[in-house]
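Worked problem 6 (solution included).
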Amino acid sequence: MKKVFIVIAAYNEEKSIERVIKSLKSFNYKNIVVVDDGSADNTFSIAKKQNVFVLQHALNRGQGASLKTAIDFALLKGADFIVTFDADGQHNSSEIKNLLKPVESGICQVALGSRFLKSDSNTPALRKFILKSGALFVWFFYGIKLTDSHNGFRVFSRKAAMAINITSDRMEHASQIVEEIHKLGLSFREVPVTITYSDYSKGKGQSSANSLRIAFKMLFRRLMH
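Solution. The predicted structure is:
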């Protein structure tokens, strides 16, 4: 039986983390790893009560660093497939099987979720513009055509997870993952997913200014290579 691990980076997610974990368990996902990224609230203790793997950063290091910690832990535990999943309730546990399918069957090594492959996408207009602009950046820099440039819902095969080196501690890790897929020649496929926009999740999302910072960091890394 292949081991599927769900990894979650969580920072000040006491309002949502219990619901997210329970949703995953309702679909029989048992290997769940939560990294509390130096939260100032009760994220750690709430997650701990759910009987899942909970790791903790003493200081807030960022989502990239948290996913790196969680992925390394899952690999040590023998994970065959690793799913990255958001802590704020934006992702739908029922759709994990759709992302797993092409990776489990060997069609690709990485599955990337895309909110824009679904006709009922309700992405806010500004967010859509930023993400589509990001997709153009990815195509320009790496020659990779994506419909969604910054989606945290993904599946890695064990081989891909071991090969991809996440060194960007904060939100630019998502762009770095695409860069690594390109550099390493990993096969990938986009899979339609639903992103649920609540007032809570929109409040937790990154700002437009941060998206611009990520774009500049992508440009800098590209020029340095």
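Discussion: The chain has a mean pLDDT of 88.
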